[in-house]
Amino acid sequence: MCTADVVFSGPGQQKVTGDAVRSWLENFPIQTAMSWGFDRLEVSGDLAVGSGSGSMTFDIDREAVSSPFDFTDVFRKGDDGRWLYSWVTYNENEPAA
């Protein structure tokens, strides 16, 4: 799903790369739902860039908290032909509620 050197860059956070991504994701709030869609996708050779919007819902202290977001992701085509996330960037459209 991701390249070995993937970069995650979220709102108000330092970017996280490579092996550090796993522990960063393990500390992410429990996600109960997520939907997203691409508004734009451009491909050039072995790189692609996609952008769009979506919404995540988290379980925070047993309360459902929704967070709409926009994103721009970079994909790299692997030697096996699969497209893998190489850079994941997102921002919150409004404070989670």
Which strand order do you get reading across the main beta sheet?
2-1-6-5-4-3
Rg is 14 Å
State the secondary-structure class.
mainly beta
Q: What oligomeric state is this?
A: single chain
Query: How does the major sheet shape up?
Result: 6 strands, mixed
Distance between the termini: 29 Å
Task: Report the average pLDDT across residues.
Answer: 92
Helix content: under 10%
Can you characterise this structure?
Helices cover 7% and strands 66% of the residues. Strand 1 and strand 2 form a beta hairpin. A 6-stranded mixed beta sheet has the order 2-1-6-5-4-3, with helices on one face. The protein has 97 residues and is mainly beta. It is built from 1 helix and 6 strands, in the order ββαββββ.
List the helices and strands and how they pair.
Elements: E1 2-9, E2 16-17, H1 20-26, E3 30-44, E4 47-60, E5 63-77, E6 83-92
Parallel strand pairs: 1-6
Antiparallel strand pairs: 1-2, 3-4, 4-5, 5-6
Q: What structural keywords apply?
A:
7% helix, globular, mainly beta, 97 residues
Summary of the model, kept short:
By secondary structure, the chain is mainly beta. The protein is built from one helix and six strands; from the N terminus they run ββαββββ.
